Amino acid sequence: MNNEWLTAFVLHRRPYRETSYIVDFFTLQEGKISAVAKGVKNSKSDRKSLLQPFQPLNVQLAGKSELKNLRSVESAAAYLPLTKTPLFCAMYINEVTNRIMPPGLASEPLYQAYTEALQRLNEEDAEGNIETTLRQFERALLEEMGLMPDFTYDVEWEAPIQPEYLYRLQAEHGFCRQVEGQGGSRAFPGQALIDLAEHVYTPLSKKVAKVLFRELLKTLLGDKPLKSRELFLRQPK
């Protein structure tokens, strides 16, 4: 890795000692990697200005331990000048990626989903497509973690999902049809599940995906609140 250039984005950075940062990178080739950026905290160098989220980067890292050292960094493309709601959504994407992705797990499909989500959030009509953008990225993340259920199959009846029925999600098994009078967990319309299986995001399937993906992500995130969500809720209306 010492001489290899990695394609990367900054997920998060935090102060380290008096003059340095620990930077969490999401890289195409090596997945999530943390590295010490020495001597940049109080400098006015280009190196410091590049180490911020939403800036496409090429980086060189060194070291044999899990915590690397940043050797070199350069811009790979223009900075994405996100603002307002798209900015908070991008911060959310960074936070869930950083909290969920284990170090060193490379995933080209997830990296591609990540970069596409940032690009869509940076488009002029981003706010009108935010729900779909977020759901598509959450889906890619859940698929990488092996938690995305089969939207086409009823595991209890051993039959295809039918649009006219309601279905419950059984943890670690899949969807099963809700029978009349059955209480318990939340039920989802079969038509919305069929649409999600085909990656069709209607108003109904987007609502179902938001609830369903949030429940699935919670198993990975735990009860610790998301800072990006708290910031979004506190922003001036």
Q: Spans of 5+ residues with little confidence (pLDDT < 50)?
A: none
- Gross morphology: elongated
Structural class: alpha+beta
Percentage of residues in helical conformation: 25-40%
How do the SSEs run, as a string of H and E?
A: EEEHEEHHHEEEEEHHH
Beta-strand proportion? 15-25%
What is Rg? Answer: 20 Å
Report the span from N to C terminus.
46 Å
How many strands in all? 10
Mean pLDDT: 92
Main sheet summary? 5 strands, mixed, barrel
Major β-sheet strand ordering: 1-2-3-5-4
| Total count of helical runs of at least 4 residues | 7
Descriptive account of the structure:
- With 237 residues, this protein is of the alpha+beta class.
- Helix content is 36%, strand content 24%.
- The strands form 3 sheets. A 5-stranded mixed barrel has the order 1-2-3-5-4. A 3-stranded antiparallel sheet has the order 9-8-10.
- Strand 8 and strand 9 form a beta hairpin.
- The termini are far apart.
Write the layout of secondary structure elements.
Layout: E1 6-16, E2 20-27, E3 31-37, H1 46-50, E4 57-62, E5 67-75, H2 84-100, H3 108-121, H4 130-144, E6 153-154, E7 159-160, E8 166-170, E9 174-177, E10 187-189, H5 190-197, H6 203-221, H7 227-234
Parallel strand pairs: 3-5
Antiparallel strand pairs: 1-2, 1-4, 2-3, 4-5, 6-7, 8-9, 8-10
